[in-house]
Write a structure and sequence with these properties.
Structural class of chain A: alpha+beta
Number of strands of chain B: 0
Low-confidence stretches of chain B: none
Radius of gyration of chain A: 16 Å
Helix content of chain A: 25-40%
Order of helices and strands of chain B: HHHHHH
Largest interface: A-B, 14 and 17 residues
Largest sheet of chain B: none
Distance between the termini of chain A: 59 Å
Number of helices of chain B: 6
Helix content of chain B: over 70%
Number of domains of chain B: 1
Strand content of chain B: under 5%
Order of helices and strands of chain A: HEEEEEEEH
Oligomer: heterodimer
Mean pLDDT of chain B: 93
Strand order of the largest sheet of chain A: 1-2-3-4-5-6-7
Mean pLDDT of chain A: 90
Low-confidence stretches of chain A: none
Shape of chain B: elongated
Chain lengths: 147, 149
């Protein structure tokens, strides 16, 4: 008998499908924008374990320009107040840069933008809707720090 | 596409994430127990919580180096065959073969020595390495390995 909490439960299958689809669309968007901004990209498969939907594979994305590498990594299907968490890291050190939270049908980027007040954690940083422009702000800042 | 290098880098990063969760838990428990000692159950004493909190970063230095070392050995076995050398020689050999810069190798060694000091209580002291510095350095070393093997 399939329990209500089984990852094979039809309701949970739909949840998994929606989450994987949401992340895949995000990665596709970032891939396209990064390419338009002159950055090269490479997809990396990531395995995630989720108590409700079970083990599943989502795309992560490596974005690179010259020596600067940014890793866009799906972290979790849900978090308090969000329906998806994806983090951005500066590689190869794996330094935290920014976080993306899916809220009210849109990805919001939490990043310490230069014009924003300084806060203790990325989660507390100012959030802006993720667009090609906000992505460019983050990528440009990484390039500037590397130069 | 799957990539072993990234899978191992994520395992190294996951240790740091776990530490952050445990640090939050330990700090919260210390605060709560200071206000209300009855929250400590199962024969757990305030002194035990204090010690756990104080040793937390060292515990995770041991964990993070274990993940790193296991990954490096996994690569060595695939690339060079069974019976990898001792850790110090393993890092030196991989650094030579992969052209890993001296400063990156040096940080990996500093984490190794600090880990040894924590685990074996060596008489020769090793400088403490912060977990974030360890994670950064070990990831920089590991990122010089091939994307897959």
């Amino acid at each position: 008998m399939v329990s209500a909490n089984s990852s094979n439960n039809p309701a949970n299958s739909k949840v998994r499908e929606d989450w994987v689809g949401r992340v895949t669309t995000l990665v596709q968007d970032v891939e396209n924008w990064a390419g338009e901004l002159g950055w090269s990209t490479r997809r990396i498969d990531k395995q995630l374990d989720d108590s409700q939907i079970g083990s599943h594979t989502v795309p992560a994305l490596l974005v690179q320009e010259g020596p600067v590498r940014v890793f866009v990594e799906p972290i979790a299907r849900s978090a308090p107040g969000a329906e998806g968490v994806v983090d951005l890291y500066l590689m190869p050190a794996y330094d935290d840069i920014a976080s993306l939270y899916f809220v009210d049908g849109q990805w919001q980027v939490h990043y310490m933008f230069p014009e924003s007040p300084t806060v203790a954690t990325i989660r507390d940083a100012e959030s802006k809707p993720l667009t090609k422009e906000t992505l460019q702000q983050v990528l440009d800042a990484m390039s500037a720090n590397a130069g | 596409m799957p990539a072993k290098q990234f899978a191992w880098l994520q395992r190294i990063k996951d240790v740091e994430r776990e530490h952050a969760a445990m640090r939050l838990a330990a700090d919260r428990l210390l605060q709560d127990a200071a206000r209300d000692p009855s929250v400590l159950t199962r024969d757990v004493r305030m002194r035990d919580v204090d010690h756990a909190a104080g040793n937390l970063e060292g515990t995770y230095i041991v964990r993070i180096f274990a993940e790193f070392e296991t990954g490096v050995r996994n690569y060595w076995v695939a690339a060079r065959g069974p019976e990898p050398p001792k850790t110090r020689d393993l890092l030196e050999s991989i650094a030579a073969r992969r052209g890993i810069p001296h400063d990156v190798l040096a940080v990996a060694h500093s984490v190794r020595m600090y880990r040894n000091n924590l685990v074996h209580e060596r008489e020769e002291a090793a400088d403490a390495v912060a977990l974030a510095v360890a994670r950064s350095g070990l990831c920089k070393f590991f990122a010089r390995l091939p994307l897959d093997w």
